[in-house]
UniProtKB/TrEMBL annotation:
Topology of the protein relative to the lipid bilayer: Single-pass membrane protein
UniProt pathway: Secondary metabolite biosynthesis
Keyword annotations of the record: Heme, Iron, Membrane, Metal-binding, Monooxygenase, Oxidoreductase, Transmembrane, Transmembrane helix
Sections of the chain in a coiled coil: none
Organism superkingdom: Eukaryota
Chain positions recorded as heme binding sites: C302
Cofactor(s) listed: heme
Membrane-spanning intervals of the chain: none
Protein name: Cytochrome P450
Similarity annotation: Belongs to the cytochrome P450 family.
Source organism: Boletus reticuloceps
Primary location group: membrane
Lineage per the UniProt record: Eukaryota, Fungi, Dikarya, Basidiomycota, Agaricomycotina
């Protein structure tokens, strides 16, 4: 345990301890740390950042209605269509494969939630969400929060006042957050009014609540749909004891996923690409070793994880089935080696790297262009 700015912070490097706290005692470990920037910057609506309470439970319930494991299969046709387009996009511009994968992720999410098909390039709503998430990650940090705590009058200064940076940032962030809530929801509302029979989160909510005359219920649905989930610290709502250690109420707990997955005892040579570590006798191990902790723990685990797993699985299968991926070659035909680098942040991803991507000889490009060719 460390103490920073009067805040107790516990960093968890063990999978067992993380699950003991965040899974098995989730009744008191499901809160979020207090951030002074959350309300004035417009992000109190976001389920991922919201304090644990009645509103949070209502929002979580809405998510589970759409994204629980047994209903995730409803969206498989959407995921298949978007994965087909991903393969075609990669074939059309192999050097931009990283951008195509990002586009695929956004396309699936926007279609499942809002029944919205994104534009091939520079989609307005996608750029809006990207801008909003960037503003949220910049403002919802302990550093930004500590500035507001130290200078609370800063958020009350008029925009024209010299040095009123906090106020200007807050207004910009709040405006973007409101756009994220209203614009895609308005689009989905128009789709529902036009008689769309597609299964999407917002459309299903509108159909289920069309006879409910309660503005607060509509706002709750808007807020829930605009949520983007990221791995965030937990906070305690009560004092606790764990194996002789006292955990005071209000403590912040951070699950160090990197350390957990780099445990040399559980994962020998963790930095080496060894997919065989998850197989026994040619079959996937049946234990929890293949469980992804990146989706979070307990009641704060990402409710969209089943859809995310399905999307990734479908995309991988179609890519491996249709495309041949190999090392890039130089002018003399020699294979080009490279040292992989990574981008770090809320998530870690490999930087673009040179490779050769071509269509497999036994794949018909015309059949590949039809949405049902792999069903």
């Amino acid at each position: 345990m460390i103490r920073v700015l009067k805040q107790d912070i516990i960093v968890i490097n063990s999978e067992k301890i993380a699950k003991d706290f965040l899974d098995h005692r989730s009744n008191i470990y499901s809160d979020r740390p207090y951030l002074a920037t959350r309300d004035p910057y417009g992000w109190s609506f976001n389920l991922a950042w919201a304090q644990y309470g009645d509103k949070w439970c209502s929002q979580r319930r809405i998510f589970h209605q759409t994204f629980r494991a047994e209903t995730a299969l409803v969206f498989r046709p959407v995921q298949l269509r978007k994965a087909h387009q991903l393969v075609l996009d990669i074939l059309s511009a192999p050097h931009d494969f990283s951008k195509h994968i990002q586009k695929f992720s956004a396309a699936v999410i926007m279609s499942i939630v809002y029944d919205y098909d994104i534009a091939p390039e520079h989609d307005h709503l996608v750029e809006l969400f990207e801008r909003g998430n960037t503003l949220a990650l910049e403002s919802l940090t302990p550093e930004a929060s500590s500035i507001i705590d130290a200078f609370p009058f800063g958020k009350c200064l008029p925009e024209w006042f010299p040095g009123a940076v906090l106020r200007r940032k807050a207004d910009l962030s709040k405006h973007c957050a409101m756009q994220m809530i209203e614009e895609p929801f308005e689009y989905a509302t128009k789709r529902e009014a036009m008689g769309s029979s597609t299964s999407a989160m917002v459309l299903d909510l509108l159909r289920a609540t069309k006879d409910v005359d309660d503005p607060s219920q509509l706002q709750l649905s808007k807020d829930t749909c605009a949520t983007a989930f990221v791995g965030l610290p937990h906070a305690t709502t009560d004092d606790d004891n764990y194996e002789g250690f006292f955990i005071p109420k209000g403590s912040t707990l951070v699950a160090n996923i990197w350390a957990i997955y780099h445990n040399g005892y559980a994962y020998p040579e963790p930095d080496v690409f060894k997919p065989e570590r998850f197989f026994v006798g040619g079959k996937l191990r049946g234990d929890k070793s293949t469980e992804s902790l990146a989706f979070g723990f307990g009641r704060r685990a990402c409710p969209g994880r089943y859809n995310a797993d399905n999307s990734v699985w479908i995309a991988i299968v179609l890519i491996l089935c249709a495309l041949k991926i190999a090392k890039a070659r130089g002018e003399q035909g020699e294979e080009l080696d490279f040292e992989p680098t990574f981008s770090y942040g809320v998530t870690t991803s490999p930087d673009p790297f040179p490779c050769s991507i071509t269509l497999r000889l036994n794949v018909d490009i015309h059949k590949l262009s039809t949405a049902d060719s792999f069903e």
